[in-house]
Design goal:
- The chain is mainly alpha-helical and 268 residues long.
- Helices cover 66% and strands 3% of the residues.
- Strands 1-2 form a two-stranded antiparallel sheet.
- α2 (22-37) runs antiparallel to α6 (104-129) and α2 crosses α7.
- The protein is globular, with a radius of gyration of 22 Å.
């Protein structure tokens, strides 16, 4: 399961995106995510899908890795689709039985939301797969540096965000270990029906929470042992500097975002 979750994992490859400054990647991914959130028309969805496919190809990361990362979301995507399919009111009824009515508007709404979630998950995974955790922390710290004038703990905040992202696969690895321990005792949760399987996960939350808190405590001791302190005044072995390609990528991203805005305003 932990290998299926892409967010928080880094994939080593040789591509233009792996060489970019982490600040430019954070800016570009944030702009693209905001553009994806505002998608409305079918043309804009198709354009966003083509853009996402282009980014995945240029990253030199196998496409099957991204597709495998969508497997844990099948339940969420299915629930989202069915929720809008059955509860969205509309005028064009395509199927009905008793009090249940499925409308064309509900079908379109369900497809739109599922499509949007997939795009957002892929673009978020794209950031962590092409950026090392330490580089991501350094980029966040540099971007949030102006907020330090407001007495905000920028260094601690950036470190906390990166650790939270990095802990996602670690927590899932712990869940896998608990499932293997249960299976060794003769309890195979995968053999249960889907409705019983959901309730069977609940008792596992206690040991999962315990081990997560324990790991967080160990991480705290490790940070204190390295005299991290509040993070202020630290130096970096590699200083971040924008290159020409970073400015080109940011400019291209802003143009793409402008194109999405024009598509929305034009109703295309």
């Amino acid at each position: 399961m932990n290998n299926s979750i892409l967010i928080g994992q880094f994939f080593e490859a040789k591509s233009i995106f792996h060489r970019l400054d982490p600040r430019s990647k954070i800016i570009c991914i944030s702009v693209i995510m905001l553009s994806f959130i505002t998608l409305e028309t079918i043309t804009s969805y198709i354009a966003a899908t083509l853009l996402m496919f282009l980014l995945l190809r240029l990253s030199n990361i196998p496409l099957k890795i991204f597709l495998k990362g969508l497997k844990p979301l099948i339940f969420i995507l299915s629930f989202t689709f069915l929720y809008h399919l059955f509860l969205t009111k509309g005028t064009t009824v395509i199927w009905s039985w008793n009090f249940i009515h499925i409308t064309l508007e509900g079908l379109i709404q369900g497809i739109r939301f599922v499509w949007r979630i997939i795009l957002l998950v892929l673009i978020a995974s794209f950031l962590t797969l092409t950026t090392k955790p330490l580089s991501l922390a350094a980029g966040l710290e540099k971007l949030l540096a102006p907020l330090s004038k407001l007495h905000l703990p920028v260094e601690q905040l950036s470190l906390m965000i990166v650790i939270a992202i990095r802990f996602i696969p670690t927590i899932l690895q712990e869940l896998d270990r608990i499932l293997l321990a249960q299976k060794a005792r003769g309890f195979d949760i995968n053999a249960l029906p889907i409705h019983k399987r959901l309730f069977a996960y609940i008792p596992m939350l206690v040991p999962l929470l315990f081990t997560t808190v324990q790991r967080a405590e160990q991480l705290t001791y490790a940070i204190d042992a390295r005299a991290y302190g509040n993070g202020k005044g630290r130096t970096h072995y590699i200083e971040l500097r924008f290159q020409k390609i970073d400015y080109q990528i940011i400019s291209s991203t802003l143009l793409i975002a402008l194109a999405f805005v024009l598509l929305k305003l034009g109703g295309i």
